[in-house]
Design goal:
Length: 326
Amino acid sequence: MSGIRPTGYLHLGNYFGAMRNYVRMQDEYPCFFMVADLHSLTTHPDTRALSESVRRVLAENIACGLDPEKVALYCQSHVPETTELYLYFNMLAYKGELEKTTTFKDKARLQPDNINVGLLTYPVLQAADILLHRAHLVPVGKDQEQHLEMSRNFAQRFNHRYGEVFPEPQAFNYGQELVKVPSLDGAGKMSKSENQNATLYLADDDETIRKKLMKAKTDAGPTEPNQPKPDYIDNLFSLMRLVSSSEVVAEFEEAYTGCTIRYGDMKKQLAEDMVRFISPIRERAAAIHQDDAYLKKVMQIGAEKARESASKTMVQVRAAMGLNYY
Ligand code: AMP
């Protein structure tokens, strides 16, 4: 189970950290993937653009390879059971631990005039999203590690107080570790709404992709053989491993090790390979986005699947809590 907020265009961080795993998981597990529209209200309370954003995120997920027939692809607000479980988990969450959450502190700093309680209880709602399907594996980027730990805590507290209902969900990635795709300027991570010039979006046109990559941060190059790579150079190699052939990656790795690398050439090559990677996704997403009837059907079918799973969990939750009075 996992989710993406409809707060802007999806980017390579979403792809690397989350969607690439979704697409592989759909052939191996029963999966639930949602557009987290309720979460987006904590930072984007204006709902005028929301419906458009929800449809775009759905289209982009499908364009990346997610098959709505194989998984439950749904919109968070279409599953009201979520908010009931969220309420129960709120009684198991403590103000102090929520205030210490890194994402809460970051977001509170970014919007000092709107430190709403939803922002504080974001990890509680997220735990409800995940545990509503009693999910074991949660494909997410590294930024979500702390939230997953909190989900495990809430699951443990519930099980301890009311009886065993929930598994302890783990953050998941097919690689060795969770991924953080840094922004191209080397400061922070790629993001939907910050750092837009240093983030590669799946909707970027070819020229924009080339321009952003040519401006990516580099330096004068390694001065000694086998020198460790700085983060921003490592990131260019990571992006290259995603979109370029293994021969091309090996060629630049060798040039780096031997101190003969020319970052201008590397960025040009990367830009062309990135254009080849992103442009078909962009075109597919644009076509799907226009098909209102199809997206409506995807949402309806997704909501049905998600609610079926959610209602089964909630029957167990209410029974465990002794809330079934008749
Ligand atoms: P969000 O964009 O915050 O709604 O996150 C959606 C998913 O993308 C979550 O699983 C995040 O962990 C992941 N994600 C977002 N930004 C990045 C990034 N720069 N690197 C890796 N994963 C990311």
